[in-house]
Every structure is written in structure tokens, then in C-alpha cells.
Design goal:
There is one protein chain. By secondary structure, the chain is of the alpha+beta class. It has two domains: 105 residues, Arc Repressor Mutant, subunit A, CATH 1.10.10; 192 residues, no CATH class. It is built from ten helices and eleven strands. The strands form three sheets. The protein has a six-stranded mixed sheet, with helices on both faces. It has a three-stranded antiparallel sheet with strand order 3-5-4, sandwiched between helices. Strand 6 and strand 7 form a beta hairpin. The longest helix has 28 residues. The protein is globular, with a radius of gyration of 21 Å. InterPro entries: Replic_Relax (IPR025855). It holds the Pfam family Replic_Relax. This is Replication-relaxation. It comes from Streptomyces roseus.
Length: 309
Amino acid sequence: MTTTVDDAAGMKSVDFQPASGDSQAHQVLALIAQHRLLTTTQLHRMVAPHLPPRKIHKVLVPLREDGLITHATLPGRLQAHFLTPPGHQTVAEWPELRGRNPTPIHSSNAALLRAGHILTGARAHIAFLTDARTRGDEYQPLDWVPEITHRLPDTAGEDRLIADAVFHYTATRPRRLQYRAFVEIDRTTMSSERLARKLITYARFHDYTPQPATRRGTVGDQAAMLAWQRVYPRFPRILFILTGAPRTTLTSRIADLRSMTADHELVARMGTRVPLGAAVLEDLETSGPQAPVWTPLTGGGEPRGWTEL
């Protein structure tokens, strides 16, 4: 499974080439690379929920022995796994990870500092993944892509839109429909106003048309295209997932999101074209994302499933 080779500088590096029987090891490495940090339980639920939990340990132990992964111990003695430098080197050219370059985690201290946000996002992803498997929809563990960045130079001082995640989902029944969504994870660590202001950044991205590189050139038609149309066939819906506070606090924060949508001209215009919704993470985990647990940020506010926003 693994060989050690000498590189040009005389340093030892690990060359991991999964054999046909190593598909789970391959998946685990790819998932840790994409999410940057995952607990043993989360890896089990993503990769092999149909197998006993101890089976995932048989995948993790060789990866740790080969120096491709290590872990930080979280409160409650949970182990959160991240890639080592040789692990990053191993997955760097894998096709499924091409173009995805989230900021890597290099130490246990960094893992502990980032664990809350990253692992909460993974919880939300697993809620969608579990529901999709039950429904027979097409949604795989790598279809949730964390930390998507879009450049946006004219946004009143904000030069980037950074979504906590973008996911791609295909419903198969009653008819085949494809969905994309931006996801914002709110753990109540920022003010409600700052959370709601994210809607303004999304609205600016929705309307943003890059200016031509030169006045005289051949890029006029391309420059007239909205920035998001170069990346997405349809502007993704925007989903806010909240946790980390009493229900009354989360309900108030959702109300603030609805107020921003109603009161801000750019956001209100976007809301007529883009589905916007908010839900409590624990509701997604208990009832599933297709249950009526989402509050639309426009209209009357009656709860509904995420595809019905």
C-alpha cells in the first residue's frame, strides 16, 4: 500500500498508492483533505455507516502508522484527524481534490482552534448525506465543498465572498432535479447584525459584473457575463444553519435574517430570484433537511423543506 522513496533533497517522503482493496483508505484521506478535520465518528458516518464503527479504526490505524494522518484530542476524548505534510503531498494531485485548496491544519493547537466551526459544518453535511441515502438521491461525501471563495473587488471594502461551503445535490424522485447551495454555518459566535450582513455580500456577488480588462480587446462579451455565471449554471440557493444557543436566540437571529432580506434593496431583489432559508442544525439532525424545518427568508415564513424554499 505504501512505499518510502528519496526525494531530490535527500528527504524521505511517503508515496501512497491505494490498491484495489484500499478504497476506504482512499476515501478517508480525500475526506480529511477536503474538510481538513474530521472525527472518527464523522468518518464512519460518511464512509461506511452500514458497517460496525470499529471497522473505521482498521482504516485509520495504517494511515496513522504510515505517517499520513495524525489527530488532536478534543474535549470528551474525541479524536479529530487531520493530514500530516506527507499526507497533503499524497493527495495533492488526486483528481477529486483538484482545485480545492483549503487552508491546511498543521498542528494539534490549530486543530483545537478550528474544530468548532469545521466539525459543525461536517455535522450539517452528514445530515444531508444521511437523508439523501434514505431517499436514494445522488449526494456523495465529497459533494460538500468547504470554504469556497469568489473574488469580488467592489463590495464596499470586502474583496471576497467566502462561503462556509457549497454543496451539489441531485434529487431523483419524483423527477430528477439538480440543486446547488451556498451554506453559512452560524454557531452564534458573531453578532446577529454581522451574520445578516453576509446576505449583502451574497447580493453583491449575485449582481456583480466584472469590468473588461481593457477598453479595447476581445473580451467584451465575456465581460458582460455576471461573475457567478462563469462558475454556476444557476445561482445557488443560500442556506443558513444555526446552532450553539437557546432556541429563542436562534429564532431571533433567523428573524434578523428575514428583516435584512426585506429591508435591504439588493438583498430583497436577490430574494425574488434565489431561494433563501435558515434552519437549526439540531432540527436537521433529528428530522432531516427535507422536513419542514426551514424558515424562508422571504414571504410568509411558513416552515418547509430545503428544496421547497
